[in-house]
Amino acid sequence: MDHIFPEVHLGGIRFDLAAIFMIVITSIIVFVIAKLAVRGASVTNPTKMQNFLEWVIEFVQNIIGTTMDLKKGRPYLTLGIALIMYLFVANLLGLPFGIITHAHEGATFLGMTLDLGGEEEAHIAWWKSPTADVAVSGALMAIVIVLTHVEGLRRNRKHYLKHYIEPYAAFLPLNIIKEIAKPLSLSLRLYGNIFAGEVMIGVIMGMGWFGIPALIVWQGFSIFVGAIQSFVFVMLTMVYMSQAIVHEEHH
Amino acid sequence: MDIVWSNFFIQLIAFGILFWLLSRYAFGPLFSIMEQRKQFVKEQLEGAENSRKQAEAQYEEQKQSLAQARKDAYDIIEQAKHTSTKQADEIVHAAKSEATRLKDEAVKDIESEKNKAIASLRAQVSGMSVMIASKIIEKQIDDKSQEQLVDQYLNEVGSK
């Protein structure tokens, strides 16, 4: 029994309603958490939520501090916090439950015809981690990679351009491969981990009642994986950023 | 792999909006608060350092004035001791001289009384000798009666 995602065609473009739905929910959750944390924020008497968010900020500051000079990395602090919060919530969102509806050929959602892939009837999964979609994690990767190249060109142009032909001009293809491998590894690692976690949950669900202990173990492990992946993503973001903007000292 | 490309752009836009909202409404205020707290802690530390220095200076001052007071008290005691010794000496000296004076006076009195007594005794003895002599002259009859008379007057003198 396979689940498909609710897709509609609108003006000739394919839309995945579940992904859109989950992206919006994740964004709202992140914003509400952040907004709650700064509500009634004070200098001398921080609330518990404020402490939590300040802990997150310091955590990201530490990540930046390990890769580059904290003064140079200061502009990317907000990006890092937004990324780690968004990814953490997105990675864990698909874990607790699923919403599956049964649809027949010709079913509609808000007046839009659902694409059932040519089948007569299908089970549609509405609830998933947004990062379990390769396009979503690809978009986050694109933000980071484009930003690293832009920042490299803007703040460190000479060294940034020079690093493509270092140590010799013959290394240019290798350096280009390296630059292409970065975004691929960044997005596919995230997508692969979260997607695999959800597939595994689907498989375990297929075991019925016997699967409950395995499901508990796997859910716990998925929480761990989700947290680690969001950490790794932000860590690599800062590493790439530092490679682009900091010139290496040659003596 | 089935890629829904619209998701890519939707995620781009969604993250852009989320980033803008977060930095506008959440992190901006929080960063400024964290900065203020840093400032606050710095001020508090400086204040604490200042008051510690002040307390130290005051403690030093107190210590000095206490030492000064101790020294003054010691000096006063020393002076008092000195004065009292001097006074005691004076008193003893005065008492001694007074006693000597009294003793001398008493000796003088005794001497003068003795002289007076001797003088009066002499006068009496001479008078009596005259009387005895006159009696003897009156009654020069015999030796026996003379002797008797001398004895009689001598006895009178002795009994007197």
UniProtKB/TrEMBL annotation, chain A:
It is a multi-pass membrane protein. One of its GO terms (cellular component) is plasma membrane. It is found in: Cell membrane; Membrane. Keywords: ATP synthesis, Cell membrane, CF(0), Hydrogen ion transport, Ion transport, Membrane, Transmembrane, Transmembrane helix, Transport. One of its GO terms (molecular function) is proton-transporting ATP synthase activity, rotational mechanism. It holds the Pfam family ATP-synt_A. PROSITE patterns: ATPASE_A (PS00449). Its main location: membrane. Coiled coil: none annotated. InterPro entries: ATP_syn_F0_a_bact/chloroplast, ATP_synth_F0_asu, ATP_synth_F0_asu_AS, F0_ATP_A_sf. GO terms for biological process: proton motive force-driven plasma membrane ATP synthesis. The chain crosses the membrane at residues 17-38, 76-100, 134-153, 190-210, 216-241. The keyword Transport applies. Belongs to the ATPase A chain family. Key component of the proton channel; it plays a direct role in the translocation of protons across the membrane. This is ATP synthase subunit a.
Automatic annotation (TrEMBL), chain B:
Keywords: ATP synthesis, Cell membrane, CF(0), Coiled coil, Hydrogen ion transport, Ion transport, Membrane, Transmembrane, Transmembrane helix, Transport. The chain crosses the membrane at residues 6-27. GO terms for cellular component: endomembrane system; plasma membrane; proton-transporting ATP synthase complex. The keyword Coiled coil applies. The keyword Thylakoid does not apply. It is a single-pass membrane protein. SUPFAM superfamilies: F1F0 ATP synthase subunit B, membrane domain. GO terms for molecular function: proton-transporting ATP synthase activity, rotational mechanism; proton-transporting ATPase activity, rotational mechanism. It is found in: Cell membrane; Endomembrane system. Residues 31-72 form a coiled coil. Pfam families: ATP-synt_B. It comes from the Bacteria. F-type ATPases have 2 components, F(1) - the catalytic core - and F(0) - the membrane proton channel. F(1) has five subunits: alpha(3), beta(3), gamma(1), delta(1), epsilon(1). F(0) has three main subunits: a(1), b(2) and c(10-14). The alpha and beta chains form an alternating ring which encloses part of the gamma chain. F(1) is attached to F(0) by a central stalk formed by the gamma and epsilon chains, while a peripheral stalk is formed by the delta and b chains. PANTHER family: ATP SYNTHASE SUBUNIT B, ATP SYNTHASE SUBUNIT B', CHLOROPLASTIC. F(1)F(0) ATP synthase produces ATP from ADP in the presence of a proton or sodium gradient. F-type ATPases consist of two structural domains, F(1) containing the extramembraneous catalytic core and F(0) containing the membrane proton channel, linked together by a central stalk and a peripheral stalk. During catalysis, ATP synthesis in the catalytic domain of F(1) is coupled via a rotary mechanism of the central stalk subunits to proton translocation. Component of the F(0) channel, it forms part of the peripheral stalk, linking F(1) to F(0). HAMAP family: ATP_synth_b_bprime (MF_01398). Belongs to the ATPase B chain family. This is ATP synthase subunit b. The gene is atpF.
